[in-house]
Write a structure and sequence with these properties.
Elements: E1 2-3, E2 10-11, E3 18-22, H1 26-29, H2 34-37, H3 48-62, E4 66-71, H4 82-85, E5 97-98, E6 101-102, E7 124-128, H5 139-146, E8 150-156, H6 158-171, E9 175-184, H7 188-203, E10 207-209, H8 211-222
Parallel strand pairs: 3-4, 3-8, 4-7, 8-9, 9-10
Antiparallel strand pairs: 1-2, 5-6
The structure holds tricarbonodiimidic diamide.
Length: 223
């Protein structure tokens, strides 16, 4: 059983893959958050929301493990290196108070996952202090306990937290697929380049496929 993907078909294992949803939090997707403070047009990220919602509904129905991540720092910022906090020339920095509470701080209203993709009980939610979801988190142990070998990636932003996490996962031996329309960037050209980088050289980081192909493959294999 396979998913029609680039650079070639992605073989699905007997044990279903996990759906990984990276950082679909208000901080990046809604006006007044961290993404906005960095000077980005956050409306660009909206396109992937209904796609991820559809994948999430199917993952829940078919019993795939679902893992949500949030880029989040402790309220005392002890897990935020000054190099990260002070980087750039923006009005508000990590930990400063914005319209949705303190930017990128665990527990603040702006740090919550958007309503359309809200986790349900039983789904794993990981707060991560880095761009990659493996750095300083229990993600590797969780995946090992689940016995998961294959990861389907969605979320934002394609070239920052999604790509970093996919590379970390690839180095740990996971078979990774990025859902092309289930991820977005503030920079369309960076999204395009990321998809090309991942699939070049025979899939040096992994596979890319559209959500229709992913959904069809999941239904055929686990439905
Ligand atoms: N700025 C940007 O594109 N992304 C981030 O800071 N974090 C994530 O990608 N989640």
């Amino acid at each position: 059983m396979q998913i029609d993907a680039r650079p070639y078909s992605y073989a699905l294992p007997e044990r279903p893959p996990a759906l990984i949803i990276i950082d679909m939090q208000r901080d990046f997707v809604e006006p007044g958050g961290f993404g906005d403070a960095l000077g980005n047009d956050v409306s660009r990220l909206q396109a992937c929301v209904p796609v991820i919602a559809r994948l999430l509904a199917v993952a829940r129905r078919l019993g795939l493990p679902v893992i949500h991540t949030r880029e989040a720092h402790k309220p005392d910022l002890s897990d935020c290196p000054p190099s990260k906090r002070l980087r750039g020339d923006c009005r508000l920095k990590i930990g400063d108070v914005g319209p949705m509470g303190r930017l990128l701080i665990d527990g603040e209203p702006g740090n919550a996952i958007i309503e359309a993709l809200k986790p349900v009980p039983g789904e794993i939610e990981i707060a991560k202090p880095g761009k990659g979801a493996f750095y300083a988190t229990p993600l590797q142990e969780i995946l090992q306990q689940l016995g998961v070998t294959h990861l389907l990636f969605t979320g934002v932003t394609t070239e920052v937290c999604v790509q970093t996490t996919m590379r970390e996962a690839n180095d740990r031996g996971y078979e990774c697929l990025l859902v092309e329309d289930g991820t977005e960037s503030y920079f369309p050209e960076f999204k395009r380049a990321t998809l090309d980088m991942i699939t070049a050289q025979g899939g040096i980081v992994g596979w890319v496929a559209g959500s229709e192909a992913v959904l069809a493959g999941l239904e055929r294999t686990y439905g």
